[in-house]
């Protein structure tokens, strides 16, 4: 979460956590059979770019661990509440990404959620 969104503050990092948890719980679309946090983070293709950078492998701080626990325990924030994707565009957020609707922007990241019919498990 930190390596993906530290510049977005705690709430931005929590939103990245929301996306990660949704990918594990979703069992849909590009995330079928992703059952663990480790599977989700290292999924290729479709995982997180941060795993390719040394910054990702730094020891987690206590505050990072607490944020991850909050996401795992179900703390959710719009626009990432039901999202499976996010990215940092140059300019405006596109209306869709991987056929998922743009649910909003938080600072530099745009978030995208599937339709309920495509991935009901992320709507809990």
Automatic annotation (TrEMBL):
Q: Which residues form the Cell wall hydrolase SleB domain?
A: 7-112
- So which residues are the signal peptide here? none
Source domain of life is Bacteria
Which molecular-function annotations from GO does this UniProt entry contain? Answer: hydrolase activity
Q: Can the keyword Hydrolase be found in this entry's annotation?
A: yes
Supply the alphabetized keyword list: Hydrolase
Q: Does the keyword Hydrolase apply?
A: yes
Protein name, per record: Cell wall hydrolase
User: What organism does the record attribute this protein to?
Assistant: Paenibacillus mangrovi
